[in-house]
Specification:
Layout (H helix, E strand, L loop, with lengths): L14 H16 L9 H10 L7 E6 L6 H4 L7 E6 L6 H14 L3 E7 L3 H12 L7 H15 L6 H18 L5 H5 L4 E7 L6 E4 L3
Parallel strand pairs: 1-2, 1-3, 3-4
Antiparallel strand pairs: 4-5
Helix pairs in contact: 5-6, 6-7
This protein binds zinc ion.
Length: 210
């Protein structure tokens, strides 16, 4: 097992070390040389290592089946917490889960990961263009993504990729101002960062704030 894969993996680690660890895992994935095969031996070792889990990061991503988060960051059992919703849309359950991981488990890094050609963002764009609104709880996804689409400009030829990026940034901004996260973020103990996954290359690129 690579020593580089575990550098940030300790309770009370820094946001910077956690982010470096995640991105190192993505480089192993992209290079076709993952060290974690997700076999039961690793699962058993993680379960036996201690009475409690000690993840070092939480990743919030989309439900898209082409973006399996543990795989694209080459992470083993016990390393990261993963939350997935359509278009990484927030709701109370998602926010409460992140608050738990940060507040109770001491995780220093929250990564919001969008991806190219996101169907959820596409659905919001379709709804805005058509003036229609889906029924059921699907409406919640569209409503939460719509502001990013509007900001990107529904008539812009590049609206979808632009809206995907804006939606990541909006999600990051919302989490940074969360009642239970704002303090640790301001103190530098916790970082909330945004990233984008490229379906074609497997690479994760960080998005600058803005
Ligand atoms: Zn998606």
């Amino acid at each position: 097992m690579s020593g580089a894969s575990g550098q940030g993996r300790q309770a009370g680690g820094t946001p910077r070390a956690a982010l470096a660890d995640l991105l190192a895992g993505n480089r192993r994935f992209v290079s076709g040389q993952p060290v974690h095969g997700h076999d039961v031996t690793e699962a058993a070792a993680a379960a036996a290592a201690s009475g409690d889990q000690q993840p070092y990061a939480v990743v919030l991503g989309c439900i898209d089946s082409r973006v399996p988060l543990e795989a694209i960051f080459d992470q083993t059992f016990g390393a990261i917490c993963v939350i997935r919703t359509g278009g990484h849309v927030l709701d109370r359950a998602v926010r409460g889960s992140i608050e738990y991981v940060v507040g109770q488990l001491g995780v220093p890094l929250v990564l919001v990961l969008g991806h190219e050609r996101c169907g959820a963002v596409g659905a919001a764009l379709d709804a805005l263009r058509s003036g229609g609104r889906p029924g059921g709880s699907l409406a919640h996804l569209v409503d939460e993504i719509a502001p990013a689409v509007t900001e990107a400009g529904i008539d812009d030829p590049a609206v979808l990729p632009l809206a995907i990026r804006r939606h990541v940034r909006r999600t990051v901004h919302t989490l940074r101002e969360d009642a239970l996260l704002a303090g640790p973020v301001a103190a530098g103990r916790v970082a909330v960062v945004g990233g984008l996954y490229d379906l074609a290359t497997g690479e994760v690129a960080l998005l600058e704030a803005g």
